[in-house]
Write a structure and sequence with these properties.
Chain A: It catalyses: 4 Fe(II)-[cytochrome c] + O2 + 8 H(+)(in) = 4 Fe(III)-[cytochrome c] + 2 H2O + 4 H(+)(out). The complex is a heterodimer of chains A (305) and B (176). By secondary structure, chain A is of the alpha+beta class. In chain A, 36% of the residues lie in helices and 20% in strands. Chain A has 9 helices and 12 strands. In chain A, strand 2 and strand 3 form a beta hairpin. In chain A, helix 7 packs across helix 9. Chain B has 176 residues and is an all-alpha fold. In chain B, helix 5 crosses helix 8 and helix 7 crosses helix 8. The chains are: A alpha+beta (305), B mainly alpha (176).
């Protein structure tokens, strides 16, 4: 498993590698031009005053060079980015919807694999091309996982798509790259690239309703009776809200609150007890719960494997 | 002269400091007290809790609270029966200034919290107290008799009715 920093310089996918192959020559060429310009400026400052100033052949050479460099870079950029939009035969389709301030991730049914919805975690099989269908639920967001591909905006009323092909298993951090309100900075998404068999197992587990022990827990009653179920879904219970993240397999995810806190029992309790202090302005209200209710609820959520 | 000029510049800049406050997290005791509506036995008319006045009656005058009310209106299925305020076959209009249970904010709060006969469901266990007030404030603004100074955020879709803080509600003709 590769656990790379969120960086476009450590590509884990075909698209990011293509972009990086364009990046270095451009940096080298422009760096050389920058040094040359500094050198000429230094020579110009060094020159004794009083000499005649008129455009000579160096100006002509510099102008021609500029035109050639721009044309060359345009051509190189065109050639390098053309394969980014080449769709393979049957890519894996994942629908991503940006919301204030979290990500809804839906896997439509494919063959005999049923569809399901999860949140703030995108798992992808290694080596297979993925077509991400990007939509926005409220305002403009931008999907950016620099280790795998470039940015793509999520725009209300206009569905975008992004193709990417992961080439290295690992965990990559993605985040919203378009200012979208108060908690824009805390809108992260973990992208986990896994071998195909592992991905298939995960997919089957996620499509199943909530785990049996969780549904037997006392906290289920609190979850269904209180405000929780108005916004959240737990498949297998009567909670069918759709405006908040699907929590059916909450405890199987790596973090809560879109990358805000690690997935621990304490963090879950803290989040439910006071979401507006941990992530001010988010759409989850402070639900008044007794300590017994909070305890039972946390037990229930920790069992949602 | 120069000092006057600086002062003249500073005054509008300092005025900009007094922006509208967004109360993102009502204190739990305040939120609990917000439920203490004194209502007449007939279920129409009454008095909001003291804490509502202590807060400065924000639910009709604060644009953030109105925007939250508008979001809740869409999120919690209100358009299913009330449309964008024009009403449908299932639910009465909210735009026309005709209130079945009176125009008071505390009565609207009660209607949303406890429901009303004829199909209006109770949202007591679906929304928190402050959210109920936000929603009630927005609903009252929809059918207000006079325009308000504060407005919720605009729709993305083309408007099908006047903006919430514009054009006072039309008085419905009294039933014969």
């Amino acid at each position: 498993m590769k656990e790379a920093a969120q960086s476009a310089l450590a590509p884990g996918g075909a698209e990011a590698a293509t972009l990086l192959a364009l990046f270095w020559p451009v940096v080298a060429l422009l760096g050389a031009i920058w040094l040359a310009v500094l050198l000429v400026a230094a020579l110009g400052l060094w020159r004794r005053p009083g000499q005649p100033r008129r455009p000579g052949w160096p100006v002509g050479v510099a102008t021609a060079g500029t035109v050639l460099v721009i044309i060359g870079l345009t051509f190189a950029s065109y050639l390098a980015t053309r394969p980014l939009s080449a769709a393979a035969e049957a890519p894996l389709v994942v629908q991503i919807q940006g919301r204030q301030w979290w990500w809804q991730v839906a896997y439509p049914a494919e063959g005999d694999a049923p569809g399901f919805t999860t949140a703030n975690e995108l798992r992808l099989p290694l080596g297979r091309q993925v077509r991400l269908e990007l939509a926005a639920g409220d305002v403009i967001h931008s999907f950016w996982v620099p280790n795998l591909a470039g940015k793509q905006d999520l725009i209300p009323g206009r569905d975008n798509a992004l193709l990417l092909t992961p080439r290295e298993a690992g965990i990559y951090r993605a985040q919203c790259a378009e200012f979208c309100g108060l908690q824009h900075a805390r809108m992260a998404l973990l992208v986990m690239v896994q071998p195909a068999e592992e991905f298939a197992r995960w997919r089957a587990a996620q499509a199943a309703p909530a785990a049996e022990p969780a549904l037997a827990a006392e906290g289920r009653r609190v979850f269904e009776a209180r405000q929780c179920s108005a916004c959240h879904t737990v498949r297998g219970s009567t909670a069918k809200g759709s405006t908040g993240p699907d929590l059916t397999h909450l405890a199987s995810r790596g973090s809560i609150g879109a990358g805000l806190l690690p997935m621990t029992r304490g963090a879950l309790a803290a989040w439910v007890a006071d979401p507006q202090t941990l992530k001010p302005g988010n759409n989850m209200p402070l639900v008044p719960l007794s300590s017994d209710e909070l305890q039972a609820l946390t037990d229930f959520m920790a069992l949602l494997q | 002269m120069r000092r006057m000029l600086l002062l003249a510049l500073a005054v509008p800049l300092l005025q900009g400091c007094k922006r509208e406050t967004r109360d993102l997290r009502p204190d739990p005791p305040v939120a609990a007290a917000l439920d203490g509506v004194a209502i007449l036995p007939i279920g129409i008319g009454g008095r909001p809790p003291e804490v509502y006045f202590a807060l400065g009656k924000p639910y009709r005058t604060n644009a953030y609270q109105l925007s939250e009310g508008k979001r809740l209106y869409a999120w919690f299925g209100c358009p299913q029966c009330h449309g964008q305020g024009e009403g449908t076959a299932r639910g009465p209009a909210l735009l026309d200034g005709w209130w079945n249970y009176g125009p008071g904010l505390e009565t609207i709060y009660l209607s949303v919290r406890d429901g009303r006969p004829g199909g209006m469901p109770a949202f007591r266990s679906r929304l928190t107290n402050d959210q109920l007030w936000q929603l009630a404030g927005y609903v009252q603004q929809l059918g207000a008799y006079s325009g308000g100074a504060a407005a919720p955020s605009r729709d993305d879709a083309p408007p099908t009715r006047p903006a919430e803080n514009r054009a006072p509600a039309r008085f419905a003709p009294l039933e014969p």
